[in-house]
Amino acid sequence: MVVNLNATAAHTLLMIAIAVLAGSVDAQIEDGWDVAHATNYGSMNGSETMQGACGYGNLTEQGYGLETTALSTALFNGGLRCGACYEIMCRDSKWCLNSTKPITIHVTATNFCPPNYTQPTGNWCNPPLKHFDLSQPMFRKIAIYESGIVPVAYRRVYCSKHGGIRFEMKGNPYWILVLVYNVGGVGDVTNVKVKGSNTNWVQMTRSWGQNWVTGAPIVGQSVSFQVTTSDGRMVESINVAPATWKFNQTFEGNQFK
Ligand SMILES: *[C@@H]1O[C@H](CO)[C@@H](O)[C@H](O)[C@H]1NC(C)=O
Ligand SMILES: *[C@@H]1O[C@H](CO)[C@@H](O)[C@H](O)[C@H]1NC(C)=O
Ligand SMILES: *[C@@H]1O[C@H](CO)[C@@H](O)[C@H](O)[C@H]1NC(C)=O
Ligand SMILES: *[C@@H]1O[C@H](CO)[C@@H](O)[C@H](O)[C@H]1NC(C)=O
Ligand SMILES: *[C@@H]1O[C@H](CO)[C@@H](O)[C@H](O)[C@H]1NC(C)=O
C-alpha cells in the first residue's frame, strides 16, 4: 500500500502535488497523499485521549501510547476506521516546524472528533472536512502549539505493532463483548468471527468502535478468532483463550505480517 519513497523524493512529490492542487481541499495527492487539517486535544500526558470512541482503554497499556489521533466524521467511517494508521506532515504554513527533511508522525486512530453544527464559524470536524485531532505531543512534533490548527498532508500506512492481536473478553455470558486491539497490517478491522471449541464459526456484530459482540455460548470453551481488515486480509488465532478464560481477561493471538 505504501511506496517507501525516501523522504526527499516524497517531499519533492508532495511539493509538486501541492502546487498542482493550488488549495483544493478534497483532491487526492499523488502516491496516496491527501490533504486535511490538524488540531490537538488533551494535555501533554495524554490522559484525555484514553477511553475514546474506538473503545480502547488505557492506550499506554494497550501499546498505542501517545501516538494517536481522533478522526472527523469524514474519516471515522462510523468507527470502522478505528485502528487505522496514518503518516502525517504539516504543510504550507508558517506554523509548521521546519527541518531539512519533512517531519512526519505516525499515529493510530483511537477516537472520534465529533461535529458541532451549532458552532457559528466552521467546526473543523464537521462533514465533509477531513480532520485529525491529534494528541498534543504528536501535534507539537509537527507544528507550533500556539497555531491551534495547521494544514497537513496525510496517507494511510501499515501499522507497526508489537506482538499479536489482543482480544479483551468483556460483557456477560449472554452478550460477550470482545475488544480487538493492537492490530497490525492496515489496522482497521472490518469483520470478526468467533468459534468456541463446541461451536462452529459464528459471525460477530460490531457494537461500537472496535468492540465486537456475540450471543454464542462460548463460556467454558477454548475460543478462536478470525480477524479481517479493510484490505480483505484475514488472520486466524486458534484456541487463543483456554477453556478456563474469564471476563476481563485479555488474550494475545497471531498478527498480520
Ligand atoms: C495530565 O495532565 C492534566 C493537565 O495538566 C492533569 O490534570 C492530569 O492530572 C494529568 N494526569 C496524569 C495521569 O498525570
Ligand atoms: C495507564 O497505564 C499506565 C501504565 O500502567 C499508568 O501509569 C497510567 O496512570 C494509566 N493512565 C490512566 C489515565 O489510567
Ligand atoms: C519555517 O520556515 C518558513 C519559511 O522559511 C518560515 O516562514 C517559518 O516562520 C518557519 N517556521 C518556524 C517555526 O521557524
Ligand atoms: C458546540 O459549539 C457551541 C458554540 O461554540 C458550544 O457552545 C457548544 O458547547 C459546542 N457543543 C459541544 C458538544 O461541544
Ligand atoms: C470487569 O470489569 C468491569 C469494569 O471494570 C467490572 O464492572 C466487572 O465487574 C468486571 N467483571 C468481572 C467478571 O470481573
Write a compact overview of the structure shown.
The chain is mainly β and 257 residues long. It is 10% helix and 35% strand.
Characterise the protein shown here.
One of its GO terms (biological process) is anatomical structure morphogenesis. It comes from Spinacia oleracea. Residues 1-27 form the signal peptide. This protein has three helices and 15 strands. It has helices spanning 7-21, 73-76, 136-142, and strands at residues 34-41, 68-71, 85-90, 104-112, 131-135, 150-157, 166-172, 175-181, 189-196, 202-203, 205-208, 211-214, 223-229, 234-241, 250-252. The protein is mostly beta strands and 257 residues long. It has two domains: 23-157, Beta Barrel (Barwin-like endoglucanases), CATH 2.40.40.10; 166-251, Sandwich (Immunoglobulin-like). It is elongated, with a radius of gyration of 20 Å. The chain has a six-stranded mixed beta barrel. A five-stranded antiparallel beta sheet has the order 11-12-8-7-15, with no helix packed on it. A four-stranded antiparallel beta sheet has the order 10-9-13-14, with no helix packed on it.
Identify the notable features of this structure and list them briefly.
binds 2-acetamido-2-deoxy-beta-D-glucopyranose, Expansin/allergen_DPBB_dom, cell wall biogenesis/degradation, Expansin, 3 helices, secreted, Immunoglobulin-like, 15 strands, Expansin_CBD_sf
- Share in helix: 10-25%
* Distinct ligands, ions and cofactors found in the model: 2-acetamido-2-deoxy-beta-D-glucopyranose
Number of domains: 2
Apparent shape: elongated
Which spans have pLDDT < 50 for at least 5 consecutive residues? Answer: 1-30
Note the run of SSEs as H and E: HEEHEEEHEEEEEEEEEE
- What's the architecture of the largest domain, going by CATH? Beta Barrel
